[in-house]
Specification:
Layout (H helix, E strand, L loop, with lengths): L1 H10 L1 E4 L5 H22 L1 H6 L5 E2 L7 H9 L3 H7 L4 E11 L31 E7 L11 E2 L24 E2 L7 E4 L5 E2 L9 E10 L8 H4 L2 H4 L4 H6 L26
Antiparallel strand pairs: 1-7, 2-3, 3-9, 4-7, 4-9, 5-6, 5-8
Bound molecules: 2-oxoglutaric acid (AKG).
């Protein structure tokens, strides 16, 4: 664990193989694709494209037991809690699909960093505000859209970083090659992008982006996981979902009609 944490501290990222078993990958992949097709049916592909959500499956922790099991096991816990000093909370928990023909340069797949409200290094060069844990449930490489990373770009803004939205390699950007079941951990302030998928199969991943629990998550999981599903989570997962002591961001009461489980701000 410490080797991985140290590697992330010094390089900004680390790849961990055998993060989950091939059988777990198959279950997760199936669930991502099922929910994606459900979303397309419910909202329409064009609508999802227009709001920049094409290929993202949201609130998965409420929608299929495979994701609940993953979060209960959370094989990244040791590293994430080590890097975030025990303050980890989920900022995003979602399925990520790069469709055939999609990927780098194809909207919405552009070079970016993840914390849209934090673009500069906080608290000095050494401070790590979050860890993106991206689990590949497919083997990834340059054919199907392995993730591109730009180590060293943490905290740079657009004017400082010479990355375009086309596939080119310059100054250390590189594309990950990783076996099915591997996860890449990286500082979410590092610029990155899904690669281009030249195959005829969707490339699937599960994203578990954790941040310090005093940061506002992109989605309020304490609100969006139903009471019934919440009961199936263990204490560590509940804390990751925002049911920990750091609840100052919660502002809604429990709403039995909508089956939400928010905790009122104190
Ligand atoms: O799916 C990928 O390869 C990259 C995902 C991504 O851009 C992200 O997690 O923010």
């Amino acid at each position: 664990m410490h080797d991985t944490s140290d590697f992330i501290r010094s390089q900004g990222y680390a790849v961990v193989e055998n993060f989950v078993s091939p059988e777990t990958c198959d279950r997760l992949r199936k669930a991502v694709l099922r929910l994606h097709s459900e979303d397309n049916d419910n909202y329409g592909k064009k609508f999802l494209y227009d709001i920049g959500q094409e290929g993202f499956v949201i609130n998965i922790g409420d929608r299929d037991p495979a994701f609940q099991e993953l979060l209960n096991d959370f094989p990244a816990a040791g590293v994430v809690e080590d890097l975030l000093d025990g303050e980890a909370a989920l900022y995003l928990f979602q399925g990520v699909i790069v469709p055939p023909g999609g990927g780098i340069g194809a909207y919405p797949w552009k070079w970016h960093c993840d914390l849209f409200h934090v673009t500069k290094m906080l608290g000095g060069e050494e401070f790590i505000p979050g860890v993106n844990v991206l689990l590949f449930v497919d083997h990834v490489d340059d054919r199907n859209g392995g993730t591109w990373l730009a180590p060293g770009s943490q905290g740079m803004d657009e004017s400082q970083i010479a990355i375009g939205d086309t596939a080119y390699q310059k100054e250390g950007e590189f594309q990950l090659v990783a076996p099915k079941g591997a996860a890449v951990f990286f500082n979410p302030l590092m610029w990155h992008c899904a690669g281009a998928n030249h195959t005829d199969q969707p490339r699937c991943a599960v994203k578990m982006l954790c941040v310090r629990d005093w940061m506002l998550p992109q989605m309020d999981y304490a609100q969006s996981i139903s009471d019934e599903v919440l009961q199936g989570y263990n204490d560590r997962a509940k804390k990751l979902l925002g049911h920990g002591p750091a609840i100052i961001r919660r502002s809604f009461d429990h709403d039995p009609e909508h089956k939400t489980s928010g905790v009122a701000a104190e």
